[in-house]
Design a protein that fits this description.
The protein contains 5 helices and 14 strands. It has 212 residues and is of the alpha/beta class. The strands form 3 sheets. The protein has a 6-stranded mixed sheet, covered by helices on one side. Strands 7-8-9-10-13-14 form a 6-stranded mixed sheet.
């Protein structure tokens, strides 16, 4: 992954009834921005993006395809990206949301299907896709600039649930062991729900992290 000296401007806005962390990423040098996991009505994002100096929103990235992470995809009017293995979930997002008592607009078809090691760029910023299946077949994390957007793979003190269709507990543990733990312990971990943490803290204290 190649980056220059740009440092991203990051804001968290908690959206929707499932309290999903929507992360807004801004490139301060170019005024371009990207949204990760718009999990509800995106109306509150406008003022936040203006305050961050974002002049152009370029993309939405979903860390996975569950309805509480794709809820606002269609409201932002920009290209959307998610891993190809979770693309079928978009076809059922309205149905699944309804089964929980929620009504959402059908999300648009993704503009780009991501694969492991792909790069996602916004202005001068660059993030690498890390495929971390387990919570869902196409769960990903985004790595770059000292940050790990962990979706529902890693939370502070916990991990994503694996009892939903497509979930696999053994697989999420392998993803953590093989794809997450080897990363730099200095990373800030910005999850899909709950407070941010660090990889150092989770490696030392998270009861679900494998120790061997």
């Amino acid at each position: 992954m190649k980056t220059n000296g740009s440092a991203p401007n990051i804001r968290r806005v908690v959206l929707g009834p499932i309290e999903t962390n929507c992360w807004i990423i801004a490139c301060p040098e170019t005024g371009m921005g990207m949204v990760v996991d718009p999990g509800g009505n995106t109306a509150p994002l406008g003022a936040v993006m203006t305050g961050m100096g974002i002049r152009e929103l370029t993309a939405t990235v979903n860390t996975h395809g569950h309805f509480d992470h794709v809820w606002g995809n269609g409201e932002l009017g920009v290209p959307t990206m998610l891993h190809r293995l979770d693309a079928p979930m978009l076809l059922r997002a309205v149905e699944v949301a309804a089964s929980y008592g929620f009504s959402i607009a059908p999300p648009p078809a993704p503009s780009r299907l991501l694969e492991d090691a792909d790069e996602v760029r916004v202005g001068h910023l660059c993030f690498t896709v890390i495929h971390t299946p387990g919570h869902s077949p196409g769960s990903i994390c985004l790595l770059g600039h000292g940050l790990l957007f962990s979706g529902d793979t890693v939370f502070q003190g916990s991990i994503g649930r694996t009892d939903l269709p497509g979930g696999d507990y053994g697989q999420i543990i392998r993803s953590i062991r093989e794809r997450i733990i080897p990363l730099s312990e200095t990373l800030r971990v910005l999850p899909g729900h709950g407070p941010e943490t660090t990889l150092k803290r989770e490696t030392a204290t998270n009861p679900f992290f494998p120790r061997s």
